[in-house]
């Protein structure tokens, strides 16, 4: 790994320099070959004893400058002035084959000054879960932190009972959170705020450096990216589960795969997280929560926006006010593509709303409904890629389908092209909760990692349906249904 550690060159008050705590007996579970190559890291080296020791935190690679970063955050709306990496350590940054800078971070690698009462460790279950779900998101084309590799630790961690432990290597364009800005804002440390903002601009938004007001332009860029990101979640039925401001990256990537889940049956009010009693982070609340979190970022940036705080406030408010429309545009564009409309027209809104109402009433599977529509978009559909008798839209959809077909008649593309475009944006496979749970169970109870590997391999091509893999596309039977998810910390 060729490191260049720009965050570690920021002043000491941004982090604590420390090493991971070695684990007893690292056992390699999986290396993400494609990602390794993208990061110009040799996958064979990662699978070697030396590479495995690095993944586990037992060996510090040359050029690394390990730090735990500090941040704050609003958790379920309550202010926590000091959080920070309590069980994660940033080894350093590498420049990928795409020229982009990436953080290489270990998660589950021991206590840090930010651990509070935590043990700094991660149970194997949540490690596997993050691997599966974040890689599934990446394959869907959704900006996200990635997993480069995972090991078992050969140690037990105590949660409800004793569970096997694990360490994972997380990769992201940075781990700078809205909560990182909020930490320095609450300290009234304007120098740090400016340094952090300059770092973020250089790293993520180099173009805005030329803007008349680069900090305002940075804020606008973050808002624009989050609007796109949340829209992409809504369009695949992804529920994050813990949208605290410390779990929102300014790089616009999804992070923190704790109690997250993809919906099976469509329910706009769906909540999975065992600790989200009021549905704060329910599916249909995600855009509003992102908006609220971004207001927190804007507030933290006030001193940088303008010397005149009244003007700064107006600017921040104007920027924040753009979020709902940006989200709506991104969502409308995405759902139009899913429904086979090359261009969206104002009349489409009713058609979309009526579909979602129907889906909710019929408790229709979110993923398969859209996939089936793609199949129905052309009469001479290819049967090899057909859901076949796995899933059919209920009769209640018939009048709506009629309206939809009429609407498709005004779409300029020929029906085969349109269908191909639809099949490329409506996945057949998502990381269904019951499959994720089965894979975790097999691994943690029977040391059988086969279902875990198979699921990851399959989810790498979510749009390529084949009946041979029908069991991965099938919604859970009632007894398989997962109703609650846990942070697993
Ligand atoms: P999360 O809910 O994963 O966003 O974590 C919130 C905060 O708790 C972060 O500062 C984490 O680093 C910290 N944390 C979570 N789990 C642990 C753990 N097992 N040991 C130490 N700190 C933890
Ligand atoms: Mg977190």
Structure description:
- The strands form four sheets. Strands 2, 6, 7, 8, 9 and 10 form a six-stranded antiparallel β-sheet that branches.
- Among the domains are: 7-172, no CATH class; 178-330, no CATH class.
- The chain is built from 17 helices and twelve strands.
- A hairpin with a 5-residue loop joins strand 6 and strand 7 (101-107).
- Helix 12 packs antiparallel against helix 14 (415-423).
- It is an alpha+beta fold.
- The mean pLDDT is 96.
- Bound molecules: adenosine monophosphate and magnesium ion.
Bound molecules: adenosine monophosphate, magnesium ion
How helix-rich are the residues, as a percent range? 40-55%
How are helices and strands ordered from N to C?
EEHHHEEEEEEHEEHHHEEHHHHHHHHHH
Silhouette: globular
> How many β-strands, per DSSP?
12
Largest sheet: 6 strands, antiparallel
Average pLDDT reading: 96
Q: Span from first to last CA?
A: 29 Å
Unreliable spans? none
Structural class: alpha+beta
Discrete helix count: 17
Radius of gyration using CA atoms only: 23 Å
Strand content: 5-15%
List the helices and strands and how they pair.
Layout (H helix, E strand, L loop, with lengths): L14 E3 L9 E5 L1 H6 L4 H5 L1 H8 L10 E3 L3 E3 L2 E3 L7 E8 L5 E7 L14 E2 H16 L6 E13 L3 E11 L5 H9 L3 H15 L9 H23 L1 E2 L21 E2 L23 H20 L3 H12 L2 H17 L8 H15 L3 H11 L21 H11 L6 H9 L9 H14 L3 H10 L10 H4 L16
Antiparallel strand pairs: 1-3, 2-9, 4-5, 6-7, 7-10, 8-10, 9-10, 11-12
The structure holds adenosine monophosphate and magnesium ion (MG).
């Amino acid at each position: 790994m060729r490191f260049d550690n720009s965050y570690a060159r920021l002043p000491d008050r941004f982090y604590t320099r420390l090493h991971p705590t070695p684990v007893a007996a690292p056992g390699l579970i999986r290396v993400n070959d494609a990602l390794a190559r993208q990061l110009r890291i040799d996958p064979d080296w990662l699978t070697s004893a030396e590479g495995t020791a690095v993944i586990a935190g037992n060996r510090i690679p040359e050029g690394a400058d390990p730090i735990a970063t500090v941040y704050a955050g609003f958790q379920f709306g309550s202010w926590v002035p000091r959080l920070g990496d309590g069980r994660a350590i940033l080894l350093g940054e590498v420049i990928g084959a795409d020229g982009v800078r990436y953080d290489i971070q270990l998660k589950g690698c021991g206590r840090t000054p930010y651990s509070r009462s935590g043990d700094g460790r991660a149970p194997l279950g949540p490690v596997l879960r993050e691997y599966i779900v974040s890689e599934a998101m990446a394959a869907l084309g959704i900006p996200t932190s990635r997993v480069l590799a995972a090991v078992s630790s050969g140690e037990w961690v105590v949660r409800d009972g004793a569970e096997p432990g694990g360490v994972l290597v997380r990769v992201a364009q940075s781990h700078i959170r809205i909560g990182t800005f909020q930490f320095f804002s609450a300290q009234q440390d304007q120098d740090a705020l400016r340094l952090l903002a300059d770092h973020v601009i250089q790293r993520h938004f180099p173009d805005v450096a030329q803007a008349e007001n680069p900090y305002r332009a940075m804020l606008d860029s973050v808002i624009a990216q989050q609007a796109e990101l949340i829209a992409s979640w809504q369009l695949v039925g992804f529920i994050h589960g813990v949208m605290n401001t410390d779990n929102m990256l300014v790089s616009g990537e999804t992070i923190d795969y704790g109690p997250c889940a993809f919906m099976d049956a469509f329910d706009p009010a769906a909540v999975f997280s065992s600790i989200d009693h009021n549905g704060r982070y329910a599916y249909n609340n995600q855009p509003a929560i992102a908006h609220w979190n971004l207001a927190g970022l804007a507030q933290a940036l006030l001193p940088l926006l303008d010397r005149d705080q009244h003007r700064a406030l107006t600017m921040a408010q104007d920027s924040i006010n753009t979020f709902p429309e940006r989200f709506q545009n991104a969502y409308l564009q995405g759902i139009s593509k899913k429904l086979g409309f090359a261009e969206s027209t104002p009349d489409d809104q009713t058609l979309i709303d009526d579909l979602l109402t129907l889906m909710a009433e019929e408790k229709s599977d979110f993923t398969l409904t859209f996939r089936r529509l793609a199949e129905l978009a052309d009469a001479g559909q290819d049967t090899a890629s057909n859901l076949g008798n796995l899933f059919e839209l209920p009769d209640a959809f018939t009048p709506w389908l009629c309206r939809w077909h009429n609407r498709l008649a005004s779409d300029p593309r020929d029906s085969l092209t349109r269908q191909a475009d639809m099949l490329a944006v409506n996945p057949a496979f998502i990381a269904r909760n019951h499959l994720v749970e089965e894979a975790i169970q097999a691994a943690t109870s029977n040391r059988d990692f086969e279902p875990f590997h198979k699921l990851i391999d399959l989810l790498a091509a979510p749009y390529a349906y084949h009946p041979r893999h029908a069991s991965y596309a099938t919604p859970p039977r009632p007894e398989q249904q997962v109703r609650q998810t846990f942070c697993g910390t």
